Amino acid sequence: MARRDFGSFHASNVQELLELPDEKYEAPHFPVDRPSFEEYKNNPPEFGKEMRKKHFLLEPEVTFINHGAFGAVLSEALENGQKYQRHTELQPLRFLDRELFPLLVDISRQLAKFVGCDPTDLVLVSNATTATSTVVRGIPFTKEDTIFFLNTTYGAVKKLLREVSRLTGVHLQEETVELPLTNRNQIIELVQDKLKPGTRLAIFDHIASNFALTMPVKEIIEICHQRKVAVYVDGAHALGSQKLNLRSLRPTYYTSNAHKWLSTPKGCAFMYVDKSCQDTVRPLVVSHGYGAGFNSEFIWTGLRDYSSFFAMLVNIDFWRTLGEDRIHSYMRSLVKRAVQYLSEKWSAPPVAPSDMFDSMALIQLPDSLHFVPPPLTEVDFSCAESIQNELYHKYNIEVPIKAIQGCLYVRISGHIYNEMSDYERLAEAVLEITVRRKQEGQVE
């Protein structure tokens, strides 16, 4: 492979390295060794409390069931990333000018295998929000165009869409998913009924953040393809909690954070773009890779800390060694048991069928907590915040409370460091709050 300058960088051509077939590709030497988890191949560890103690940095006294917010880092990955930060500073020019790009290419190739896509279709970004802004702001919408999305869409994405509509005049078509749901076909039928051919872009969550629902994205994507509608899937919560195969899923665009459920250090995500659209997707920041190809344009958007991308390989090793299916199965079964337990303790009606909850779930809070203080006409964010703050300050329980369509819900997360005792503590705390507020005349 002949060296080609990347701006003034002394590095091989990024596009050519990514396009090489595996049999012709030579992986570079990584200057920092990754930890080994070989001991777990024949003797897999128990999930729950011991996993938390050995591999996560969470304070032992906190009941942490809000992994879905910003994740919680695998301690070995954090340590590996810090070693890369130190390695960078030993000889900054050597690392950034000569070593960095071939190493990032190798990371991209390894990540592409993990998520089931061609490495030339994937770029590394800091977070899913950056990826979404990159795609949406890069499409030349007009006032004749429509963007289709559901009310389950992440709040920051809705704000982005409103801003793009203000700038371009594009019409926003938001359709409503009503809770409770009795089956996943209700969402499929909603999209079938409301999505019109000629829509410029449709945006869907893979796992809806506020609603905690795992969406039927494969069926939704197929509907979009049938109607020739470009489809963007916001999979912020998917990587690490779902086994991804983007070749099978076939979205037009896809993004996911690695720092959430895969538990990498913060600021680690990827963006996938189908080859048919790569010519029109440009980074928000233009730098030395401009004009050198899709991957080259994104690999360097100015100097930043790349350590979380290097650390991600530790997380991938960890997931593969422990077994992706085993990890995903534990998360799902734990959340399912927690939903059943909390629903029984609080006499809560079901929000959605169990197959629509994976690593997160919504459970309705007890009816008596749905007290509406004047002048409100229904529970809102302030009601939810009051309960969430009480759980945090009085019980040291980190969990979000959501006000959705006039009801209060708790959104629980289940990761490999969680166990049933976390949700048992939550159940008792909520019941104590209910009794105390009843005594104070704050509940119905």
Automatic annotation (TrEMBL):
Occurrences of domain Aminotransferase class V (ranges): 108-289
InterPro entries for this protein: Aminotrans_V_dom, PyrdxlP-dep_Trfase, PyrdxlP-dep_Trfase_major, PyrdxlP-dep_Trfase_small
A Pfam family hit: Aminotran_5
Keywords, comma-separated and alphabetical: Pyridoxal phosphate
Keyword match Chloroplast: no
UniProt keyword annotation of DNA-binding present: no
Cited PANTHER family: HERCYNYLCYSTEINE SULFOXIDE LYASE, L-CYSTEINE DESULFHYDRASE
Protein name per Swiss-Prot or TrEMBL: Probable L-cysteine desulfhydrase, chloroplastic
Protein's gene: LOC115222933
